[in-house]
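Example: Amidohydrolase-related domain-containing protein.
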Amino acid sequence: MPLYEGDYDATTANVLDTYGWGWHSDTGLHVIRLFTSGVFDRFPRLKIIIGHMGEMVPFMHDRILHFESHFGQHKRGWTTFWNENIWITTSGMFTLPTLIYALRNTKKDRILYSVDYPYETNLDGKKFMEDVQKSGLLTQVELEMLAYSHSGFSENL
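Written out as structure tokens, the predicted fold is:
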């Protein structure tokens, strides 16, 4: 039986395969594979920045924890790895619900502001930051940390 690829035009197929979905799911899966392969046990100080509000991983966090015992033995568990080795960026994921969900399992000092140009605009990013400020989701200090100060970020690299 041939693989059904869909009855859509080349542009739609490209968007699904790349910036609309594929890049994100592929990158998220790669991060999980890096953890399960033991890379971070061998290199515990390795740091990774993941774009697009964590490339779907924060949204699958509970499922990852549920199946963590199937990933073999590790010196440090998934949550420790996520808290110590990973930063995520906003990169064009400019909605409050997305940020709120990421904050459920990602420390505030591990989320960095970025725009994702040319796929998104600086104006969209500015509006997002204004929306975050108006929402009261973050304190002024936390908002500044998200926007530019990233307290301790460079020292941890």
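The CA atoms of residues 87 and 110 lie 5 Å apart.
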